[in-house]
Amino acid sequence: MRMVIVAVGVVLAVALGVPAASAAPAAVTAPAAVTAPAAVTAPATVTAPAAVAGTPSAGVTAEHPLLDVSCVSSKYCVAVGYYEEADLGDGGPIAETWNGKTWSAAELKLPVDALGGTLYGVSCKSVKSCIAVGDFFVKNANDRTSLLAESWNGKTWTVALPPAPAGTTSAALSGVSCATATVCIATGVYTPPNDTAAVLTESWNGRAWAHVAVKLPAGSTGADLNGVSCASSKSCVAVGAYGRANDAGIVALAELWNGKTWTPSGPPSPAGATAATLQGVSCVSAAACVAVGTYTNAAGYFVGLSESWNGKKWTEVPLPKPLVYGELFGVSCVSPNYCLAVGAALPTGGPQGTPASYVWNGKIWTFRSVPVPPQGGGSTATSMLEGAQCLLATDCVAVGQLDLGSSLQYQYGFSGFWNGKTWKPAATA
Q: Which domains are assigned to the chain?
């Protein structure tokens, strides 16, 4: 089963005390234009589920979670994720488009040396301009992953390979945000020769990808960036986590982009937290951002984390915990006074739970339950919402995965639409 949130692996690496990495290496200049490599068509995606959202058709056992979504209107959204073969073997990336009524799958291609792949993030500026990012396994390379980007022109997806720093042994992009069709920033993680998890950012100018160096907080011992949001071409915020020297813990990380350089900005850690990471962020301006994630409390349980940025400092915002514990993976804001955050509610404090959402009014978060199909979720299932996009306070969509609670624990695509008061599930392709 493919790891859904790439940050998990980085956090574990940091916790194990991998060698220090004080900063990312110098920028690597991309070629004048990235030529799409020879590609092979990915195998067909799984058959669309039956009428009940998230329920697979008879005989279908392949997994196909959705990890992120981007919308340009209520009648046009693009969601991305991955699928695996029926035997839980390597599959490939998937992309689905929403036309206001139904989801449909689009054909995707992979590099010829790819063995499976995943798209973790997507950002659309129009129906003819989307960028999706992720990774793919390289054939005969001992599970080594390489950077993957796909661009959408409204009809077809085209593969591109962003440049990784020299000596990279493995890399993945987990988030992307486009200020315009020709200005995008992608974030992720790579492993240099010394086997240290290091942050990764890439910029897209409409023709080519280029690696951009990131300055980390002093004394960091490994880090990654999970999500990014650009309010303009000269104002982006990226979030993730880094380890502090001498086993002093894992703390949330935020980086600020001014169009030329990254500057670290440290969100406060919750009282008693032994580890914290930010998974998603949404900015409506350079002075109004909300970031969400997870921290581990003193008892070792996962607790949802929220931080707000006013252009000068970060402030932790407490979350209500209707089911005791939880995790947040994605957030979308339409104004400083309205955001929707999505994740999972964890009744037992462990890593399994049911889809959950919270609404922000500029002061407090309010929990909003997410209905799931019969047998879809429960204390023994691994169900969650992972990405969200709001166009208005009354027009939001979220995507994720639904575990039907069987012993096989297959994760199927799941989507829901929020009208400001209630959630309505919708079948995915």
A: 7-15+62-426 (2.120.10.70)
